[in-house]
Amino acid sequence: MIRKVILYLFPLGARRREFISKIYRKIKPRSEQEIIKNSLFKGGKSYIDSRETIVLVSHQSSATGAPLLGLNIGKNLSGKYNLINYVMEKSTIHDAFLDDCFLLVDATNINTDLTVPRIFDYLNNKYHLKVVICNSVVTHSVLSVVRDLRIPALSLIHEFTGYRVSSEITLKTIEIADRVILPAKIVQDSLTDYLKDVEIISNIPKNILIYPQGKLPFIPKTYGDADNVGQILQKIDIRNKDEYKIIVGAGSIDIRKGIDLFISIARYTKQNYKGKCKFVWVGDGLRESDYAYSYWLQREIKIFDLSNDFIFLEHQQSLDTIFSIADIYCLTSRMDPFPNIAIDALEANLPIACFKDASGTVEFLEKYNAESIIVDYLDTYQLGHEIANYLTKITNKTNINAKLVKEYLDFDKYINFLLEKIDECCEYNTENQKISNKLEESEFFDNKFIGLSELKSASTYFYTLAHRKGLHRLTSNPCPGFSNLKWIIENGDSETGVPLYDALNKGIYTTHECYRLPINSEKNISHKFAIHLHLFYIDLADEFNEYFKLLPKGYDLYITIIDSNNSEFIKEKFSSSGAANVEIVAVDNIGRDIAPMIFGLKDQLLNRGYEIVGHFHSKKTVSAHDNLGDKWRAYLLNNLIGDNEQISNSILNLFNDEKIGLVFPEDRTYIDIGENKFYVDELCTAIGLEKICETPLFPLGNMFWARVDAIRDIFSLNEDMILQEEPLPRDGSYMHALERIIPNIVEKNGYKYVTVYKDRTSW
Known about the structure:
The chain has 31 helices and 22 strands. By secondary structure, the protein is α/β, with parallel strands linked by helices. It folds into five domains: 1-30; 31-210, 3-Layer(aba) Sandwich (Rossmann fold); 229-409, 3-Layer(aba) Sandwich (Rossmann fold); 432-508, no CATH class; 517-666 and 701-711 and 751-758, Alpha-Beta Complex (Spore Coat Polysaccharide Biosynthesis Protein SpsA, Chain A). Strands 1-4-3-2-5-6-7-8 form an eight-stranded mixed beta sheet, sandwiched between helices. This is Glycosyl transferase, group 1. It comes from Francisella philomiragia subsp. philomiragia (strain ATCC 25017 / CCUG 19701 / FSC 153 / O#319-036).
């Protein structure tokens, strides 16, 4: 008995060796060199010295869409290049990936963060990699390593943005890859929708191209059944093919593929077609042990009385056989980029029945007037009805679908397209490094200010990649006095697309006037100035009082509050602020911080002889995370008042230049007109400003010093026009618009604006 237990726990042969090996490796893990060595396998081809070397990354070696495409790409490119197949997860057709490469990397058990960079460093040092092709967005972790090694990268994204991996990962893939190829516009639309809704980017990234993959010439015969026509007819219980119409759907048993929709279509087709039909779903995944989706499908078949008409057929090595006897192919996916199966069906000259807005295949069918049936998204009743009509009226088949595949979905043409893009990636990557290196050497790229990375080389490279792809919003401004958006507005985006690099090439170092604090100035401050503080959060009274103590003594302080009951308390809090007079004004809680100044202090500020006014408010931004509001407020106050009298004096001394009408903090943030165009247009009409298309520079956070005469127009605004009930949206209101056009108002009145920046401050 004991012997049996021991043999069970420690069996003889391979199981014992595997068990002992696992125990040993826990005690003594493999070294990194050993892990790398054990991940490399000799392929079926020999390395040729005269050829360049490429790496093709597949997330799996499985007989599914993207891996099969990668396998076929590798087979074709291995005739021109030395091919390394990099497989992230070993699967069912792994041996096929060995055949056409000289080296295969099996990364199934590799820790990506630690070992993958060493593997690619080793491969690049030894073989001088020309390009890495990352097939599927799921390979993003490898793509990041490729970027860090500055190897040219081509990414093939087949997935909808946000599906399988987070939307942020798709965006990172776009940021990193030199070229990105999508199979259909519907996939691009899913990306641009995300960019617009979340990242507030309205343009299509410049490195994106659309090209469908074409008909795959090779499918491994090692997986699935290889049934002939007779065997298939027997399995689907048809003795006389002439008596039946066969409608085929295919794919793994997965809710995305829409097997439940296919069952519903079968129901409505059967109701409307008087002849005999068989509905055949080809694909693995139906399991008796699946008490969710599989159970649901089989229950529906029974409820819809389809038990004799609906068949699940095991995965086939090739669909050519069943397509040869089918009458129509049903693409029921809820979401599919451009499935290979649909191309196979087109080549078999089958009409395609499908849903609008569900796949890239629909775009192709509509563009080239293919023989097809297309109905509204997931309208199974209509599709079943249309299929029944088609089967009733069917005559001789045309040859149009097969012709379309030959003309527009030829895999050799797809490979030629990839070859062109590989060369483009190499040229693009070389140019990126040239740009990044120049920026790294430049003193005008302030790595502390831009705040992208601790490493300046990483910051300049990301800055380069983002701007070259038109993703300008993803980066900060590179130094005080340089606005990326202002440069683009004034100079266009037609050269390299990298604002600071293009400026440096023209000998230009700034886009606007910015003073670094403190400013050396010994001039006396002769201006009469006032301070407006809108104190919505009265718990910040002490903080503002401490800042105001640093200002030249004798100014007038106006504090607007919401609750008049707090007047005496607030006045006492600011008794030591250094103000000659402190006046508390109660206002309605509307119009954020600026309306209380415009409508609550109009008479005081316009009629008491003030030249300069400082506008401040108790900014908290309570909706933001990580105490962002507190950090932002501190940044604004440090750059408008500072932490000593020298800074506050030097800021106010700027107004000794009679041309200066507005001073506000420099900000590295890329921010534009946003959702405020309508409100900006309305304000321009009211004030008499010329049309404003974009607002690259303004007092972000709405704290500033201004010459009263320079901003006098805001006091003429109509209260009924611009005041909107709270809560206001995060963007898109008169208050957001007014904040943006203050510099334009100042310029309209004959003054200029400048920014100030205290080194090593940020928010």
